[in-house]
Design a protein that fits this description.
With about 160 residues, the protein is mainly α. The protein has helices at about 5-10, 15-35, 40-55, 55-90, 90-120, 145-160, and strands at about 135, 140-145.
């Protein structure tokens, strides 16, 4: 079972329980069919299948445990294989390590620079009230100097009186 599927099973327990129930029911039905083919009465075939199959609740509890154990064994086998391959070719291992280090370092540096700009609030009181002022001259926006801002502020105070 792929690793992604195993991880998703951790979060969708009801779906996993339904799948396990369906799987156990199909195994029970196969055992009953074998008993019927051997000439048993249908009631005896079902009873024998249930007895030989065992406790369904205990089996349902063991299936996820076995799945997790298989995932850990598979992961450990992958790690051992990767280490053997890296030991065989140290040049590739050094190159891969350097590329990973550079990639992680670059990502960290970029995030450190971008995080305060994009994700943190501005270091001013009431940052939501900050506005942009510009002049429109011949249909084009032009930036406003601080002197122009002070002039607009002065005219605005005089006109409100």
């Amino acid at each position: 079972m792929p690793l992604f599927r195993r991880i998703s099973n951790l979060f969708s327990r009801r779906d996993l329980d339904r799948e396990i129930d369906a799987e156990l029911q199909s195994h029970l039905q196969l055992r009953m069919d074998d008993n019927l083919a051997a000439g048993m009465h249908p009631d005896d075939a079902r009873r024998d299948a249930v007895l030989r199959f065992g406790n369904r609740t205990a089996l349902k509890e063991r299936v996820p445990e076995a799945d997790a154990a298989m995932a850990i064994e598979s992961l450990w086998a992958d790690v051992r294989c990767a280490l053997r391959r890296l030991r065989k070719s140290p040049g590739f291992a050094a190159t891969a390590t350097m590329i990973l280090a550079l990639g992680i370092g670059a990502s960290t540096a970029i995030f450190s620079a971008v995080s305060p700009i994009l994700f943190e609030p501005l270091p001013y009181p009431h940052p939501a009230r900050i506005m942009m002022i510009w002049d429109i001259f011949e249909g084009a926006h032009s930036d406003v100097t601080f002197h122009t801002y002070r002039e607009v502020l002065t005219r605005n105070r005089h006109s409100n009186r």
